[in-house]
Amino acid sequence: MNLLDIILLILLIPGTIRGITKGFLEQAVSLVGVILAVYLAYHFSEPVCVWLDQYINVSETVLHVIGFAVMLLGVLMAVMIVAKLFTRVADMASLGWFNRVLGFVFSLAISAVVISVLIILFDTVNTKFELVKTPVLNDSVLYGHLKDLGYWIFPYLKELLTLGQ
C-alpha cells in the first residue's frame, strides 16, 4: 500500500459517512444516477466538445475529457435533486438503522464507481502528460482495481477517451 492507496481510501470516507447519515433510498437513487450520468455523458458529450472547442485550445483528448466531465456533472446535479425527493420519502417511512446500514453499502459502491471514473479520466490525461509516474500507479493496491471496475461497468469509456489519441 502506497501514498496513492491512502489518498484513494480517504476519498472513499466522505461517501461512506454520507451513506450512514442519508440512508438507503437516497444512496440507491444516487447509484443509479451515477451510472445514468456516465451513460448520458458518454452519449452526449460530443456536442459539448464541439461547443468547447470554440472557446478553449487544448488537444482533442483533453477536450473529450473536459466535455465528458461537464456532461457528467450536469446530469449528477439533476440526479441529486431527485435523490433529495426520495430522502423525504425515506424520512416519512422511518426505516431506521436498516436504512442506514444499507445506505453505507450503497454509498461505498457509489464512491467506488465515481472514483473509478475519475481514475479513468485521470489515466487518460496521465498517459499523455505523465503527471504521476507509472511505477507509482503500478505499486498501488487500489488504483488498478478501481480502474478495472470503471472499465467493467462502463466499457465504452475506453472508446470515447481514445478518440483524440
What percent strand?
under 5%
* Poorly predicted spans: none
What is the share of helical residues?
Answer: over 70%
Q: Any idea how many domains?
A: 1
Q: Tell me how many strands there are.
A: 0
Structure in a nutshell:
The protein is mainly α and 165 residues long.
Characterization of this structure:
It contains seven helices and no strands. With 165 residues, the chain is mainly alpha-helical. It has one domain. The longest helix is centred in the middle third of the chain and has 34 residues.
Question: What structural keywords apply?
Answer:
165 residues, mainly alpha, 7 helices
Task: Indicate the topology.
Elements: H1 3-22, H2 24-53, H3 60-93, H4 96-129, H5 134-139, H6 143-153, H7 156-161
Helix pairs in contact: 1-4, 2-3, 2-4, 3-4, 4-6
